């Protein structure tokens, strides 16, 4: 599980102006992140606009990502949903070649009870050929995975190896860190709170802004892992404004504007998302220039 310590990046999915997947852009992005010192990659999470992609597109993107990565970094696939049986089928039929784990978001819209969330992940754990990460993001799912449910799952299933938690509740993080099995990983799901979470004992971050700024982010996380929080704080504070701008009009419009300016790929998104406004794009470019 040490391979998932440090900096993971939730990959954007580059699109051409006609809406098709931009595979050249995806190749550029993967190489950009590896060159920037990222520790592992997450393919087709929320940031990848997975909700707007077909099953065939997902399969093609997963396969291409594994091909370009060529085992240079550990790979995680985002496979989740609010129909347990359908998610289980997607996991069972997933081509695991090149992948080490699956990140599965807690069921959204249905608003299950804690027992329902537990039974959902129990079902997935029992059929998954790969290790699983829970993904708690109440701002999108309209329900929270409680610390009790997280630790119950962590104790009951050895192949549930961690949680990406974007709840923003530090009391919840305290409880997880206190009660979890030693090897279970708590991973930040929010860029702005990575440093304080790591100071508490979190394993790292699955980042959005890392798509644009992999070196700055991975340098900060490495300093945190080494216990040098004073040096890490300098980088953390320098990234605050860029992070605010990156999320100002939703994810991933802001970070796509940034990678476009860097020359990685275009900034096209799929409806119902729209590209960053011209004012936001200008502000992001200005901040990138400040960051060098």
TrEMBL record:
Active site, per annotation:
135, 164
Entry EC number(s): 4.3.3.7
Question: Where in the cell is the protein located?
Answer: Cytoplasm
Name the UniProt key words of this record, in alphabetical order: Amino-acid biosynthesis, Cytoplasm, Diaminopimelate biosynthesis, Lyase, Lysine biosynthesis, Schiff base
In alphabetical order, the GO MF annotations are:
4-hydroxy-tetrahydrodipicolinate synthase activity
What InterPro entries would the database entry show?
A: Aldolase_TIM (IPR013785), DapA (IPR005263), DapA-like (IPR002220), Schiff_base-form_aldolases_AS (IPR020625)
Q: Which reaction does it catalyse?
A: L-aspartate 4-semialdehyde + pyruvate = (2S,4S)-4-hydroxy-2,3,4,5-tetrahydrodipicolinate + H2O + H(+)
Using the UniProt record, name the top-level EC class of this enzyme in a single word. Answer: lyase
- Indicate which residues the UniProt annotation says bind pyruvate: 47, 206
For biological process, the GO terms are: diaminopimelate biosynthetic process; lysine biosynthetic process via diaminopimelate
Q: Where is this site: Part of a proton relay during catalysis?
A: 46, 109
Q: Give the matching Pfam families.
A: DHDPS
Q: In which pathway does it act?
A: Amino-acid biosynthesis; L-lysine biosynthesis via DAP pathway; (S)-tetrahydrodipicolinate from L-aspartate: step 3/4
Role of this protein: Catalyzes the condensation of (S)-aspartate-beta-semialdehyde [(S)-ASA] and pyruvate to 4-hydroxy-tetrahydrodipicolinate (HTPA).
What's this protein's family per the entry?
Belongs to the DapA family.
For this protein, the record's HAMAP family field holds:
DapA
> What quaternary arrangement does the UniProt entry report?
Homotetramer; dimer of dimers.
Q: What is this protein called?
A: 4-hydroxy-tetrahydrodipicolinate synthase
Gene of this entry: dapA
